[in-house]
Each structure stands twice: as C-alpha cells, then as structure tokens.
Amino acid sequence: MQTEELMLKAMNYAYPGEIPIGVWFLPGAWMRHERELLRLAKKYPGLYGEIPDDYDYRKNISQTYHTGSYTDEWGCVWTNIEEGINAIVTGHPLRRRGDIPGLKVPDPLGATLLEGFTLPHGFMYLRLLDLRGFEEAMLDFAEECEELQILIDKVTEFNCRQLEAALPGSGPVLYFGDDLGTQRGLAIGPEKWRKYLFPAFKKIYSVAKSAGKKVYMHTDGMIYEIIPDLFLAGVDMVNPQYRANGLGNLVRVCKGRYPVNLDLDRQMFPLATPKECAEHVRECVEALYLPSGGLGITIEIGADVPVANIEALMGAADEYRYYKR
Domains of the chain, with CATH numbers? Predict the structure, then answer.
C-alpha cells in the first residue's frame, strides 16, 4: 500500500512523514493461506490497502501463474508445471542468430501489458534472453555480433512505441521491471551492459521523462554496481533485492543519493523465525532511513513462507513505517 503521494515524497527526498511500505502476496501464497492472508490484509490496511469482504484473489492471477503452456505475441513459449508459481520461457523463437534480421516485431498496441507495470516485466534485457535463449544471448554479448545490436534496436523501438501508447492513461509514476542481475552480478558484466543496454534503457525512459513522469524500476539480482547508471538513464527510484546486493553495498552506493524501495530478503522468509523476520525489518529500516526520505520497503510473500513469519514481518513493518531517528 505504497500510495503515490508517499512514493513521490520518498523519491524526491521531500520528507514523506512515514516510510512507504507495501506487502505483496504471490498467487501461490494466496492458494496456500487464503483465509490467513485475508485476515492479515484487513489487520494491516496501511500495508496492503483496503480489501473488500468479497475479495477474490483468483481474478488477479495472470496467465503465467497457471499450469500449462502458451505462446506470447513474440513467439516465446511459456511453460508452467506448478499452479501459483510463475512460468518460464521454454521455447525461444530466435534460436539461430541468422533469424534476427527477419524478426517481425509485434504490434505494440496489441501487445500484452502486465497489470501494475507500464511495460510488461522483462521488457528489455529479459526479452532478449526469451527470444534467443540464455546461452545464445550470452554468446551474442561475448562475441558482440552485429545481430545483437539489430535485436536490441528492434526491442527498444517496440518498447518506446508501446510506452507512448500507454502514457495517456498513466499517473505521475511509471512502473517498470526487468531483472538485470544474477545472485553474483550481471551475467554480461557492467561494461557490456553500459555499452549495449544503457542506451536502450535511456531511450525508453526518455519517453517517460519527456512526458514529465517519474520512473520506478524493479530489478532482481546483484545490480548495485550499475545503480548510478540506471539513474543516469532516467530512473527516479530503484527496487533492488536485499540478499543479492547486500545491505552494506546498498547503503554505500545509494543512501542519500539514489532513492531505494528495498525488496526484503525473500530467501530468508521461509527459513527464519518470526523474531528474525521482525529483526530483519528493523535492520533494514535503521540502515537506510533518512528523515528526508529516499527509502521504501517491499515485502513479497511466496507460498513457502509460514503464516507466523508473515505476521511478524507485517507487524514489524507496521511499526517501523513510522520510524524516526
């Protein structure tokens, strides 16, 4: 329940008065703990938002969270073997490098948008991997073939046109998501990211900036070494992961410079005690808090998180969103 007003104040270091903290229950968590999650959502409306008595999470589940396969507008085949868990791409339409120049780009006006994001999650870097497959894409970056730039240009142009079409109905903050890192760093390294992908993101985000919009970017993986580059490309607030980046790195790189909406340690949640979960919230808030802002917190709950831990996280978050030092 990170209201736009709070998020804007946090982005602008405009003394938001409280830390914007939001909780997100993934479909698998709803399927496993529906009754308890409804109870907690109603108990903490400041974290989840007002929820009606007849709320049905099933209406908000995207196609990729259902078992089976489907083919998207790019020709990528998505496969899911576990209801409530997100699908992965198992069929890559550009397996041969020679297929890239002839790629027919879909109609941006008819393409799929993920609810909550201005462009679908994985709109740039991950789309390259979806189209080529991870190994082939890594070879493209390693060998710096001319087809790589052709593909990047095609995807970038598509994203710009789709974003332009989405602008009229958008609010002051535009939300983007693309997972750039692994748990140990960028698969292509920061130098090649800056050479090939920085210009693409800058061009896409310039569409938003020219319309006077703020840019919020979610990105999983270890990306702290390119956070300054993301802001040069137009990002106004970044949503990085605690575990992949390390709290110390995020404090060193971002605190007081680059607004952060921190994604708490999802990999800890299933294994920790309730007390450890509450201490985790305290640790992160105390490390990154500034009275002027620059901090938000996101708590994403998967199917494997015990209810006691969910309640501990939400209770601590509800307390620490009013933290003052």
Answer: 4-320 (3.20.20.210)
